[in-house]
Amino acid sequence: MAKRVAENPIIVPEAVPPSEPNMEVIGAFNPGATRFGDEVILLLRVAERPIMEDPDYVGVPMLNLNHRNGSRRIEILPVPKYSPLTDLSDPRAVVYEGRIYLSSISHLRLARSRDGIHFTIDPEPTLFPETPYEEYGIEDCRITRIDDTYYISYTAVSRYGICVGLASTRDFKQFQRHGLILHHENKNVVLFPRKIGGRYVAMHRTAPSGFNGPHMWLAYSPDLLHWGGHQVLMAPRVHQWDSRRIGAGAPPMETPEGWLIVYHGVNAKDGYCAGVALLDLEEPHRVLHRSQEPLIAPTEDYEVSGFFERVVFPTGLVPMSDGRWMLYYGVADRSVAVAETSMEELLAVAKGEVAAASR
What we know:
Strand content: over 45%
Helix content: under 10%
Mean pLDDT: 95
Structural class: mainly beta
CATH architecture: 5 Propeller
CATH class: Mainly Beta
Number of domains: 1
Low-confidence stretches: none
Shape: globular
CATH superfamily: Glycosyl hydrolase domain, family 43
Largest sheet: 5 strands, antiparallel
């Protein structure tokens, strides 16, 4: 099965400098990943929280929309820890006076590597929140190369909900932002690397409703900005490893047998796991195969314990020159890990031709 590298976790929060002196990095995880020339590029989600001098208060970080006039990019709302109006039961959120905030604010940070394991991390943010729809941060990006452009889809979080933004680059030096492409509540957007039937294609994940849980959908676009033609792709499966929720992971890889996708699924026993599916090349809404067992389930200490327990969250699949494929994934909402695999193995897992997962 997919083999975790001995160096895991390959990136930890302590290796990432904060964006401002009064902040501390508590997570560097869920990276978008791609190959650029002879390097592997990661765009890390870097989560920061304020350093508070008064232990009776927790700081809620938010984008300062007026920071361009020379003030700090992040403003901090002090929230009394022991107030009956404060709820800190979820480490990812702060609920105060009935309003939900995030306990950290995230941006995207570039990291580079020649061998896919040892990375050099940029000292400054690469993409930082900019708009009111990114007030609580930008998160969990995916990178898809289409022709000579690398498109970066990311989650934008604010008081208005969870939306999807899009940026692009050709050199990972200059970036163009294209704004929101899907409104709330939506996330886990992954673009296909070419048009299908003359249209661009994306996977996305809607929020649960009173009728169903979170489903993966397909959407189509003439220009990558305006999306429609939505179709349900996959739903959680009762009593299986992806029974509670699912969402797209790495961008699809085209193979002679179909579009191979690595996605995440959640169940009560294991938490977040990585699995594999195979979609029809010309009708990608047709699921040809879907793994009966996860490719990777959280078993290692760095996957089980962290900011949020029991998380394997796949976000990038990158080919190496020697035929290996490197699967990058976030662990425990804290760090980055990688596992080595092969396309033959991934296809076999999708079709149920191999035994149980890497547990």
